[in-house]
Amino acid sequence: MSEHAEQDVWAVMADQRIAMLTVEEEGRLVSRPMASLARPEENHVYFVTRLDAKVGEIGGSAPVNLAYADTHKNTYLSVSGTARTSQDRAKLRELWSMWVEAWLPQGPDGDDVALITVEPEEAKLWDATSSNLLYAGKVLKAVATQRPPGGGRIEEVAMGGGGDARSRSAIGGRAVSDKAPDAETARAYQDAMEGSEGAELPSLGGPSA
Q: Where are the annotated segments for Disordered (predicted)?
């Protein structure tokens, strides 16, 4: 169990800002990128937007998913919760900024300005590694040993401050190691990179679970 798992979830949301908000529309799941405003002290994530059917009518609620990704750090986050749409003018004014103004010049009192409030309920955080280079070394070692690379930390977190965090580091039900590649593997990877004649480090896919 990770003592700071929930804080880590909020830190990712605060750092990334842009979330893929997934809702159900006419029986289909639809995702769209939106700027999020994380407020851990309120256990809410806010989206200031135009009034439409993203999560239903004013006063209604709907289940949603928020997805965040940092490909540079190989960190990925999925948050499930309940969203409500309102035109809470006081909260809109509190959250308003020049960045919101750029997209919604009518201001927080505009007739078509709305607030989506998401209350997170569960989250899953993948923290594969601190660097692409280290992860590339793991991939190289996996090819040599015919064993899947270590996927790093996976946190399943009950949000809201009242739930335990269940942590596991496994792929396909098997425990994996988060240790750095050994010296021989690291040298092999360095030789391979030096022989690439300036080629960029390949884009590495995220962890699977």
A: 159-209
Query: Is 0.85 surpassed by the pTM of this model?
Result: no
Regarding predicted confidence, which is higher, 31 or 200? 31
Please state the domain extents for the chain. 5-124, 129-194
Decide: 150 and 178 in contact? Cβ < 8 Å: yes
CA distance 195 to 141: 18
Burial code (b: 16+ CB inside 10 Å, e: under 16) for 165-187 equals beeebebeeeebeeeebeeebbe
Q: Which is more confidently placed, 19 or 128?
A: 19
Query: Where in 105-197 does DSSP place strands (E)?
Result: 113-127, 153-158, 165-168, 170-171, 174-175
CATH superfamily of 5-124: Electron Transport, Fmn-binding Protein; Chain A (2.30.110.10)
Contact 119, 128 (CB under 8 A): no
* Cβ proximity of 155 and 167 under 8 Å: yes
Confirm if 175 and 148 have CB atoms less than 8 A apart.
Answer: no
Q: pLDDT tens digits, residue range 51-68? A: 876 776 667 789 999 999
Residue of 178, 179, 186, 171 lying closest to 137 (CA atoms) = 186
Q: Is the dihedral of CA 72, 78, 81, 87 positive or negative?
A: positive
Q: Report the C-alpha gap between 5 and 12 in whole angstroms.
A: 11
Angle between helices 183-194 and 132-145 (to 10 degrees): 110
